[in-house]
Amino acid sequence: MVGTIVGKWRRRPGVACLMDTAEHQHFAWLARSFGRTNYLPLTSSDLDALASAGSYVEKYPGTHLFKEGEESNAAYVVRTGEVELYRTRKDGELVVGRVGPGAVIGDIALFQETPYVSSARAVEPVTAFQLDRSKLLPLLIEHPVIAMRWLVAGLNQLERTQRQVIRLLHRTVLEQVSELLGDEADRFGEVRLSQASLANLLGSSRQTVNQALAELREAGAIETGYRVIRIVDRDALDAIVSDRAGVG
């Protein structure tokens, strides 16, 4: 279900259209998503431009923001909820990631003018800000601060991905599972990923991931249920990673 542009514009003769204070605060989360930098603050003009460049969309669980192979005509910033990114294979779906509030998705394909390389499906109610290609590209050209912050956000994401790949190359499946659970847990200590999804994310077999989860249960670090893993002893989970990595 497609939402509308948030807020109403205040128009006065001879004065640029600016959102009121409440509306600026409402878009602060969007500004922070494009690189959490203090040296490039966004002006009122920048915030106005962001507000006019897109609209909110709301998705129910199981529905898509976009699908693999579709024309990449928009990028999305997730405000609430979680989105699962997956690719379709002959033997089923391959989960390649899961993102939450603040994540920017779909922008790489949009900038490259190629179809989306994966599908983005809501796993719980999702609200996202949709930035259309026809509005986003002129926005970045006219507002260099926004463009720079978008670049910084993309580079930070690339660096995190590279660090994760390097860590995984030198760790056992047990260590990989422990670290992934720690990274993916919400504020309640819950990881809402199936065991099959965990295996796909780590590039391991489901059997080896199940064995690792069994070890963590026996150690009292986690509890498991249907499509949810609950961390009950974070210190025990962290110790498995640090001890086996020779740290601490």
Structure description:
The structure is a single chain. This protein is α+β, with helices and mostly antiparallel strands and 248 residues long. The chain folds into two domains: 10-164, Jelly Rolls; 171-244, Arc Repressor Mutant, subunit A (Orthogonal Bundle), CATH 1.10.10. The protein contains ten helices and 13 strands. The protein has helices at residues 21-26, 28-33, 44-52, 107-112, 133-142, 144-169, 173-184, 195-202, 206-218, 234-244; strands at 10-12, 15-18, 54-59, 64-66, 74-80, 83-89, 92-99, 104-105, 119-122, 126-132, 190-191, 222-225, 228-231. The strands form four sheets. The protein has a four-stranded antiparallel beta sheet with strand order 3-10-5-8. Strands 4-9-6-7 form a four-stranded antiparallel beta sheet. It has a three-stranded antiparallel beta sheet with strand order 11-13-12. A hairpin with a 2-residue loop joins strand 1 and strand 2. Helix 5 (133-142) crosses helix 6 (144-169) and helix 8 packs across helix 9. Mean pLDDT is 77; it is low at 1-26 and 244-248.
Key features?
single chain, about 250 residues, alpha+beta, Jelly Rolls, Arc Repressor Mutant, subunit A, 2 domains, four-stranded antiparallel sheet, 10 helices, elongated, disordered N terminus, disordered C terminus
